[in-house]
Amino acid sequence: MHFDWESLTDSVCRCRLPFLDVTVGLVQGSAGALLVDTGTTLTEAKAIRDDVREIAGCDVTHVVLTHKHFDHVLGSVAHHAGKLSQTPCDLSKITALAKPVQRL
């Protein structure tokens, strides 16, 4: 594991990347793995890709970019996702991808 991922639910986690303190999110679902933002550098993005494989057991299938700043989007090249979205996006698609989450 390259980064310290914090589990938020059974199917959602995040990590704060050391370079520029960017937060990246991961939503695991029955249809694949959705990555929220992709990091700043190719090296960082490859490490995120490796971590996602270890956490989710699959490659990133969807990417959502929260905004177009370089520190959130430049890592996109390392993720050969079938679907790429930039916000604003249809949150129902994200919800449908996620596993059911138990409310606290």
Topology:
Elements: E1 5-7, E2 12-16, E3 23-29, E4 32-36, H1 42-56, E5 62-65, H2 70-73, E6 83-86, H3 91-97
Parallel strand pairs: 4-5, 5-6
Antiparallel strand pairs: 1-2, 2-3, 3-4
Structural write-up:
This protein has 3 helices and 6 strands. A 6-stranded mixed beta sheet has the order 1-2-3-4-5-6, with helices on one face. With 104 residues, it is of the alpha/beta class. The chain has a single domain, classed as Ribonuclease Z/Hydroxyacylglutathione hydrolase-like (Metallo-beta-lactamase, Chain A, 4-Layer Sandwich). Strand 1 (5-7) and strand 2 form a beta hairpin.
The CATH architecture classification is: 4-Layer Sandwich
Output the strand order for the largest sheet.
1-2-3-4-5-6
User: What share of the residues lie within helices?
Assistant: 25-40%
CATH class: Alpha Beta
The largest β sheet comes out as: 6 strands, mixed
Looking at CATH, the homologous superfamily is: Ribonuclease Z/Hydroxyacylglutathione hydrolase-like
Distance between the termini: 28 Å
Question: What does this entry show, briefly?
Answer:
This protein has helices at 42-56, 70-73, 91-97; strands spanning 5-7, 12-16, 23-29, 32-36, 62-65, 83-86.
